[in-house]
Backbone:
């Protein structure tokens, strides 16, 4: 009998107000679904404080933090130094999610770009990977990445989380040696181009995530997402690639451990 695969949810917002009141139940269901680690994304001072406490209670839940591109204009200066202090104290496994979002453009593009650079520099200083949100802003993102996030001529490590770009954009991510993370969106019936990306991305550069509480997979669409559902995304990717789910689980877990410096 084959061993049950285990999973790592590389991106969840467990300390979001939308789900924090039920976080223990979510974590219990995640354990039952063989989720062995979760990278929790903190986006402000409240979620950061909750996240650090969560790690004390559940040592297999790890923290990343940054103000999202949506909120940097309103909150970026208020939060940056607290996040930088946590990063310098070794309390974070990554800096993020930071990046650029020109689809909504809730913050001015120039402010988004300035904070992206600041977070990239913080990640370099602390030798942490970055978690990137990028939507309809890939040209500017790659330009900033190429200019501000290299060590000895090579790109420092990171992941494009919840990737929804084109095959060409995926290739640009991969050729920089980065990880590409797929969420429940890949399971949606109309995500034809993203499913092509899933088919082509090498297992060596693939992560899986839920983006809890958002973007539940097709089977649960419209419901609150949770880390337990990451197995469904893994199963869907395995079917697209024509390989066993165990291969997807093992590769994505190993990639997450290496990127975020988690215990194997």
Residues:
């Amino acid at each position: 009998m084959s061993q049950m695969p285990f999973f790592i949810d590389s991106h969840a917002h467990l300390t979001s107000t939308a789900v924090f009141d039920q976080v223990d139940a979510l974590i219990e269901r995640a354990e039952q679904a063989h989720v062995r680690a979760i990278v929790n994304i903190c986006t402000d001072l409240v979620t950061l404080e909750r996240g650090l406490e969560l790690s004390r209670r559940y040592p297999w839940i790890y923290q990343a933090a940054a103000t999202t591109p949506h909120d940097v204009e309103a909150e970026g200066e208020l939060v940056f130094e607290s996040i930088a202090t946590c990063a310098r104290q070794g309390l974070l496994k990554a800096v993020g999610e930071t990046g650029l979002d020109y689809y909504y453009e809730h913050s001015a593009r120039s402010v988004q770009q300035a904070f992206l650079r600041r977070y990239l520099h913080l990640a370099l200083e602390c030798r942490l990977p970055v978690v990137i949100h990028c939507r309809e802003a890939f040209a500017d993102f790659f330009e900033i990445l190429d200019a501000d996030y290299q060590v000895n001529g090579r790109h420092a490590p990171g992941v494009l989380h919840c990737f929804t770009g084109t095959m060409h954009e995926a290739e640009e991510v991969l050729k920089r040696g980065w990880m590409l993370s797929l969420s429940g969106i890949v399971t949606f019936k109309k995500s034809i181009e993203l499913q092509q990306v899933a088919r082509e991305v090498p297992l060596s550069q693939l992560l899986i995530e839920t983006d809890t509480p958002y973007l539940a997979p097709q089977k649960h669409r419209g419901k609150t997402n949770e880390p337990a559902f990451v197995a469904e995304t893994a199963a869907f990717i395995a079917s697209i690639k024509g390989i066993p789910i165990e291969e997807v689980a093992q590769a994505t877990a190993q990639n997450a451990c290496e990127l975020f410096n988690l215990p194997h």
Residues 219 and 247 are 22 Å apart (CA to CA). The chain has a mean pLDDT of 97. The first strand starts at residue 7 and ends at 12. The chain has one domain: 7-260.
